[in-house]
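Re: your question about Dephospho-CoA kinase

S., sorry for the slow reply, the queue was backed up all week. Below is exactly what I fed in.
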Amino acid sequence: MNTSTAQPIKNWVLGLTGGIGCGKSAVSAMFEQLGITVVDADIIARQVVAPNSNGLAAISEHFGTTVLNPDGSLNRAKLREIIFADNAQKTWLNNLLHPLIREKTLNDLSTANSAYVVLVAPLLFENGLEQYCDRTLIIDVPVAVQLERTIARDNINEQQALSIIAAQMSREEKLHRADDVVDNNQPLALVAIVIQQLHTQYLTLAAKK
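Result:
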């Protein structure tokens, strides 16, 4: 629940989160099908370093053209290699990107014209983004299901998947902090029914803002 003094957003905002492999994309698509605008933090993170963006220009000026692909896009693997080897460079990059991402996120949340707006962010709580939300929803599955889905989707081994899950806020902590929970370890048709019910509640809450 939003009780902070963060920049006011005219729209009622639902923060949607969950660990890797929990099915956030499938659920956010259900909200879109109901006519609700979805703002995805991961997509924004890519947009702020897209070709011809100020973010990418600053990165290439700082790190040199070795972090660019031949087509002028960001060579993410090369940049990742640099920042993992040098914590100061990682800090510099975060100081550049986080304000850009936050500014675009807040702008997109404020300019959405649906009845309310959904902010999808895997690190919603970790990055303090819940302060911009009126309510939060976690998409939940057991860790074993997270592992299975992540290994299949990303073509990685179990140890790599476990490392990614361990780096995120624990499932228990997210469940404790979220206002609403959707069990996504069931057929999507049943999940869609739950989302429709929540949508009805959110419409009522949004109308009061």
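Residues 1-6 have pLDDT under 50 and may be disordered. Residues 33 and 119 are 15 Å apart (CA to CA).

Happy to talk it through on Thursday.
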